Target: Aldo/keto reductase
Amino acid sequence: MEYVTLNNGVKMPIIGFGVYQITDMAECERIVGEAINAGYRSFDTSSAYFNEEAVGRAIAKSGVPREEFFITTKLWVQDASYQAAKGAYQASLDRLGLDYLDLYLIHQPFGDYYGAWHAMEELYEDGNVRAIGVSNFDDARLADLIINNKVVPVLNQVETHPFFQQKIAIETMKKYGVQIESWGPFAQGGKNIFVNPTLVEIAEAHGKSVGQVVLRWHIQRGVVVIPKSTNPNRMKQNLDVFDFELTNEDIEKISALDLGHSELIDYLQASPAEMLNSLKVHD
Model:
């Protein structure tokens, strides 16, 4: 495994495992257990995924020492305030059955996320979480949060994949020392990514799968990835990406696939704010 060093000195695996949309608790526990057996130690969940308990049970049953894991969870919009964030953190910790978090993120850039960030700064300073960051923050919101607060987020988890490469956002994050992490590294299967002719050609040249090529492309860009799979063989395959490198020509070909925008969600429009503020979790 390779690691990135976050801006506070904490090391994070460059490949983790995401559990988004695995809402059946028994299934989630089984899948996370299989991922642990495959070699994953970094897991990404959220209060909004309704599976923190399952992730925690799988970790507890694994027999792997807690310090070998890197566990991320996220604060939902309804808890985006100073007081609510403190309670939401403890609730997530209890559901996970852990004594501390490795990374705590503001899940969406809505609500009183300034108040939430102040609470998270205190949690960090008190040693309850090793690192704090954000998710889905556009350049303007990220820069504004950094300029007007004490602790710089260690990471911003955003949609990025070959069809939405976030080139400008990456430069902004580099400027402020914020690590980029990809949710949906495979574009959630959109745009027929696994049969894309360009990616298939590159995969065949390296004797790898398209998925492995895409993950390798992310890694060579310095992007942390959290692919999800329910197939144990695919889980292992997704970790087997450190024995080859894409050429400059490969990277140029993939660069040409960039549409320059998301086809999933546009955070600069009103509709995502309206929709995400309406969703309630863990009432």
